[in-house]
Amino acid sequence: MRALTWQGTKDVRVETVPDPKILNPRDAIIEVTSTAICGSDLHIFDGVIPGMQAGDILGHEFMGRVVDVGPGSTLKKGQRVVVPFTISCGGCFFCTEGLYSACDNSNPVEKQDASEAAFGHAMAGIFGYSHLTGGYSGGQAEYVRVPFSDVGPIVVPDDLPDDQVLFLSDILPTGWMAAENCDIRPGDTVAVWGCGPVGLFAVQSALLMGAGQVIAIDHHPRRLELAASLGAKVVNYRETHVAEALLEMTGGIGPDAVIDAVGMESHGLAPDRLMDRAKQAVGIGVDGIHALRSAIHACRKGGRVSVPGVHGGFADSFPTGAVMQKGLTLRSGQTHVQRYMPSLLHRIAEGEIDTTFLISHRLPLEDAAKGYQHFRDDQNTWTKVVLKTPASGWTG
Ligand SMILES: NC(=O)c1ccc[n+]([C@@H]2O[C@H](COP(=O)([O-])OP(=O)(O)OC[C@H]3O[C@@H](n4cnc5c(N)ncnc54)[C@H](O)[C@@H]3O)[C@@H](O)[C@H]2O)c1
Ligand SMILES: [Zn+2]
Ligand SMILES: [Zn+2]
Question: What is 2-170+335-392's CATH number, 1.10.3720.10, 3.90.180.10, 3.40.50.720, 3.30.413.10?
Fold first, then answer.
């Protein structure tokens, strides 16, 4: 089959690789029709996520048709499914608590050493996301093996096209959980750093949850335009002093909740960001937390800080003083995707949520490397890239 492989920093290639096979009774094989490139993939592309090996198949946002099942799978051949990026067993302590991204059984013990050392505990397996998270082959490919297929994938009705449901695999639940972690009360002000796919879905979700005003912060005019079209007030951090603007827009007290939807690769020329970059460049595992610092600084006293943005190492100059002195609550995590898929699918089917506004480019899987380069370098207009395989029947 054809699949997008990681070969090194900023080097991804579509190559011919062996087809996946059923390895365990609960596995299913999915013939992928649509798969998206995520901001999280860019962290891998840029070489800031450790644990990648040459030849690893990328991709954690994908959907398609079931073509083979093990005896323990509840799926049936021919069913159309969206697959969550988190691989979860459904039966461990964490899965039964609904903490799917903390599953204790999907990141095999012999591969956990690095994440245990880095985080204290191993995380769940994630498709196409380094050997820190199990080294599973991803779904930017014609076929993919899906472990625990009786727990993860959701069957979608044939009348909902791929582009409407694909984002159930990650960014839609991620934006939703980011807003949920803000514990929004009616009328609250929520400020969102980053108007990429995650930030935009966080904006949409926060408004659906009853926020009185959502303020979206970025520097790309097109992305800010999309945030405004969802109902957000927008702040371009290149033109406006963000902290002052937020005070002005909140009667001088600051937002009730703030969301870091940027993660470890913050842009800009702020001195603290340049210091983070210099340390990142020498490979000592330092996270870029400029956006998170700004969010914590701006948040009102007693407010909530939600961090969907991915961080993978250790932070320097983390504002512990602001967190403690202002009495902030901080919530984060890889998304517990399985928890949110059914209700969000229902909202899509009811026409309450549209996700297609985000897609700026559709490309054949063969052009995946081009998609990565543009999604990274032309962020303003390349807001989301969906890759189509030959099985999708898409002709451009
Ligand atoms: N928690 C999860 O499970 C989960 C799931 C998916 C993605 N993510 C993470 O969420 C983050 C966003 O993902 P995405 O796909 O939207 O990425 P993206 O790279 O497309 O978007 C990031 C946006 O942040 C903006 N930005 C950069 N620096 C900024 C700053 N200082 N202030 C304000 N905006 C700034 C960029 O201009 C860009 O528009 C990434 O870190 C990604 O890894 C987390
Ligand atoms: Zn993703
Ligand atoms: Zn589990």
Answer: 3.90.180.10
